[in-house]
Every structure is written in C-alpha cells, then in structure tokens.
Amino acid sequence: MHFLSRLVHRFSTVATSTSNVGSISTDLYKEKDLKRLVDKFKRYSDLERFRTKTGIYKETVRRLANAKRFRWIEEILEHQKQYKDVSKEGFSVRLVALYGQADLPKKLGIEPDQVSYNTVVKAYCEMGSLDSAIMLLDDMEKKGVEPDRITFNTLLHAFYMNGRFGAAEMIWERMANRNITPDIRSYNAKLYGLAMEKRTKEAVELVEEMRYKTIKPDVFSFNALIKGFVNEGKLEEAKWWYDEIEKSDCAINKGTFTILVPLVCEKGDLDFAFELCKKIFGRRCLVDEELLQLVLDSLVKESKIEEAKELVELSKTNDYCRYNLKFSSNE
After folding, report:
1. What's the structural domain count of the chain?
2. In which domain, by residue range, is 293 found?
3. Which of 47, 89, 164, 217 would disulfide-bridge 221, Cβ 3.0–4.6 Å?
4. Rounded to two decimals, what is the model's pTM?
C-alpha cells in the first residue's frame, strides 16, 4: 500500500512538473475516456502555466458538454476554486458550455448578469460562433440586461475582422440606437473592416471623423489604413500613412512592419525596405524571421550585396533577438 501511494505521488509529481504545456494539451486531446480526462485536467491544473491556457479549458468543457457530462463540468469548476487566478474564468467557461440549454438557470443556480453575458459573447466570438454571439445579444435585451460598450466592441471586432461587414454595420447601428458612444476600439474595428473591403477612401474619411470627435487615432488606426492601401497595392499612400504614425507621436509596432514590408519588396523599393529593417532593429521590434528573410532575398536578387550583408550582420549582432538569415543559393 505504501509502495502504491509513492507510485501515485511520483506520477502526480512528474505530470505536474512538466513545463511543456503543448504536450499536456495533446495528452488531453487524445484522451478518449472522459472520466480520465477530468482527472488529468484537475491534476494538470496545479501548473500555473497550464491555468493560463484558457483554450484548453474551453475545449475540455466543450467535450464534456457535448457528452452531457454536466456533473463533471461542475467537478472541474469546484476544483478550480482553489486557484484564485482562474475561478472567474472557470465560471465563464461553464456558461459557454451550458448556454443555450433550456434549463441553464436551474443547472447553474444563477441569473447571468452583464459581465457574464459579455464573457460568453467574447467566447463565442473567439470560437467563430458569430451568429450565436448575436443571438446572445438579442437574449440580453430580451431579459433586460443592458449591453454596454464592451459588448458591442467585442462584436464589432469579430464581425469586421471576419469579413461580415454588413452585419457589423447593423451592430454599429444598434450601438448608436442605445446612445453608446463609439471609442477608439470601435473605430479601429471599423477601420480594419474597411481595409479588408478595400474601401480606403471611406477609411480615411472615418479617421477624419475620429479627429473631429476628438478621438485620437493610435498605431492600430494607422496600421488599418496602411493595410487598406497595401490591399489595394498603393505603396505611396501606404508610405504616407506610415509617416503619419510618427508625426502623431505613436509608436510603430510589429504590425506596421508586417503589413508594409511585403508590398515594399513587391514594388521593388528596396532602399525603403532596408531602412525599415534598420528601424526594426533600432526599435528592438520582434518580427518574424520570414519577414527579414524576404528583404534579404530581395536585396540579393537586385545585387544589393552590401546592404544584404549589413542586414545579416544586424540579425546576428543585435542584443535582443538572434535571427538565422541565410543568403540564397543564387548569391
């Protein structure tokens, strides 16, 4: 008996000491026995890094909900209460899993409030269940729970970013009808929607509207405009808005470079591409290696060997991130 106890303790220690959350996720995904799934989940929850991976939590609860193992969902939730950092997340995920069940209030013993609804709306949007998110908005209003700016911003972002521009505009109208004033997040969502629709003229007009309403555009606003012009293949306009970022005292970020650099290389403006790379390193910006490799390959192709060598040197000698850039075989 003592040997068995030690063996169980050893297994538990090994399982919870691993730092490879990816392996844990795979283990849970492959586990077909739902009771063992619950037991493993509870054991892995001792790891703080595991508890931050809410996607694993949602997938586990989803599987249990689909199998109608609601008692085991409750068991997981009860277990999570010992961890202060996830108790609220556990509650919200339970709502996600059970919402839509006819006996939701009876199962949970609660009446969802605005915060609960907003959490579930966000979860549905993250899962791509946009129609369910809208149905939830309808349900809020039906039950007298007032949606707020957080509710609408969550929906606007999801619908604009997923190319459902018309539906997003209807959400915008519903927000206006409730006299909820759009903020920078609302406008940025719409700007990205316009960029994806290649409606840059309207996007520029929207930025002017923001300024008129004293809503200062931020780097995400400018990135959306740059993305719009990039999508239309208009390099000079994209460069103009790139310059506007610094004029507006905003900090250029990874997204700016990621959006702009490919078009710059495609259009053959390699001097500018090289300048962008130097700014990346100067600002200690963490971009994907593929982006820098694209510039390097373009420089080599146009026989700009000195610039190419300098870029490789910067990639190796900077003091914040080493990149493994390689000259193409044609060099």
Report:
1. 1
2. 270-331
3. 217
4. 0.70
